[in-house]
Amino acid sequence: MLLVLSLMSASCVSSSLLALQQVLDSMPPVRAMQIRVRDYRDGCLRLAAPLAANVNDKGNAFGGSLASALTLSGWALVTLQLRLAGHDAEVYVADSHLRYLSPVHEDLAAQAQAAPDADWATFLSTFAQRRKARIAVVATQPGVDGRPAAELSGRFVAFARG
Amino acid sequence: MLLVLSLMSASCVSSSLLALQQVLDSMPPVRAMQIRVRDYRDGCLRLAAPLAANVNDKGNAFGGSLASALTLSGWALVTLQLRLAGHDAEVYVADSHLRYLSPVHEDLAAQAQAAPDADWATFLSTFAQRRKARIAVVATQPGVDGRPAAELSGRFVAFARG
After folding, report:
1. How many degrees, rounded to 5, is the angle at CA B148 between CA B142 and CA B152?
2. Does residue B36 surpass a pLDDT of 90?
3. Which of A112, A123, A145, B97 could form a disulfide with A73 if both were Cys (CB 3.0 to 4.6 A apart)?
């Protein structure tokens, strides 16, 4: 029984990630950045994008592409959590703080999770009650020696559709 | 004499804006967003980009494109001020705070200027002395009724080349 539930859940995640990719592909600037949904595991959603499509005049990752990938990883994470809970919502970024810590010479790899002081249970129950909720997310672009090359702290707001 | 100086200065601004456009066009993600240098007047640098190339799944401006255009308007302003002062520098965004206040249903129009507590004379003299300097910039995307639809407060750092 547990195995069946676990397989069902994995299948829900896979189909939701596919749906997220379709939304990303429907946005011309995101398509141009070639941003791909990579995976979702242990509360962390990862996106990837090739450096070649996101390079600046200095040969490293363009700050706007880093901002876009980090913001989208947070947006995708919040959207995924709502879908897995059976909700149909529009998710927007409300605000964000970005720190660019070192140049990125590799492909982009944004990974998002709930902020340390945020929790999905509270977010989802607020959404179910008020048809609107917000949550804080942190997203990082890995750098060298385990330190992030860029970081985003952002708040995302979800509105029930219809 | 004043008229000649003023004409020379206008010509310097024009050629610097053209050089900035060439740098923007050399970056694949910026070219995809079709970001254009519009003008520079009274300390304010403006960029523009068509909504069609920057639209999200909801039919309004993609947050990553707004972040990119606002960040680039700040980057272009700092680069321009350094060029007009005769400096050759690499300019990077160090950090930024973005607020998305209302959906943008029009073309993107980022406008950047020095933050209220920043001043170009101090920035340029620090750069001349230390070959490195940073300055705070504010950039906005206009919204309805004179209120911004999105705002960026960011710090940019310049390093002397060579």
Report:
1. 100
2. yes
3. A112
DSSP conformation letters of A10-78:
HHHHHHHHHHHHHHHHTSHHHHHHT-EEEEEETTEEEEEB-GGGGB-TTSSB-HHHHHHHHHHHHHHHH
DSSP state of B110: -
Contact B29 A32 (CB under 8 A): yes
What is d(CA B55, CA A139) in angstroms, rounded to the nearest whole number?
23
Q: How many of the other CB atoms lie within 10 Å of CB of A43?
A: 11
Asked if B60 reaches chain A (Cβ–Cβ under 8 Å), the answer is: no
DSSP A7: H
Tokens (6 digits) for A42: 């242990």
In one letter, which amino acid is B118?
A
Place of tokens 């060439």: B22
Domain spans of chain A, in order of start = 2-160
CB contact under 8 A, A98 and B94: no
* B2-160 classified as CATH 3.30.200.20: no
Question: Angle at the Cα of A129 (from A123 to A89), degrees rounded to 5?
Answer: 65
Look at the block and give the residue holding tokens 């997220």.
Answer: A20
Minimal CA–CA distance to A74: which of A6, A137, A17?
Answer: A137
State pTM to two decimals: 0.93
- Which chain A residues have a beta carbon less than 8 Å from that of B56? 27
